[in-house]
Write a structure and sequence with these properties.
The C terminus is likely disordered. Strands 1, 2, 3, 4, 5, 6, 7 and 8 form an 8-stranded mixed β-sheet that branches. The longest helix is centred in the C-terminal third of the chain and has 8 residues. It is globular, with a radius of gyration of 16 Å. It is mainly β and 126 residues long.
Length: 126
């Protein structure tokens, strides 16, 4: 039997707070219990939005699918035309049974991370 519950999530950026126009936001509640296996999505919300962060969303999930012995985390991806623009690079653990208030997830700009790692010249013309 489905038992829907929900909680609020605020998505903020660590640097650039501008979303690409018509960006695709994907917010997921993941079962991350198994170290050697891919995470399993327990709930997912996808929507298009653009403008300025923060983004405030409500994620609904079926609590009958949640196992209290497992470990869960939130994941955020923001893409435009299939290209990744923002992602959370830090794990955001969550206990779906005891979640209170708004969960704040920080995302990092992928372009900014690449520029920092490669001295800012990865995509410059030679």
């Amino acid at each position: 039997m489905t038992q829907l519950k929900s909680f609020n999530v605020e998505i903020v950026s660590s640097s650039d707070n501008r979303l690409p126009p018509s960006g695709q936001v994907q917010l997921s509640l993941l079962d991350v219990s198994l170290a050697d296996a891919p995470a399993v999505s327990q709930a997912e919300l996808r929507l298009r939005c653009g403008g300025v962060m923060p983004i405030n969303l409500q994620l609904a999930f079926d609590s009958s699918l949640i196992d209290p012995r497992r470990t869960y985390a939130l994941s955020v991806r923001i893409e435009k035309d299939g290209k990744l623009h923002f992602i959370n690079t830090s794990r955001h653990p969550i206990d779906p049974y005891r979640v209170f208030g708004t969960q704040r997830v920080v995302v990092d700009s992928v372009a900014g991370a690449l520029e920092g790692m490669h001295g800012g010249n990865l995509f410059k013309d030679q």
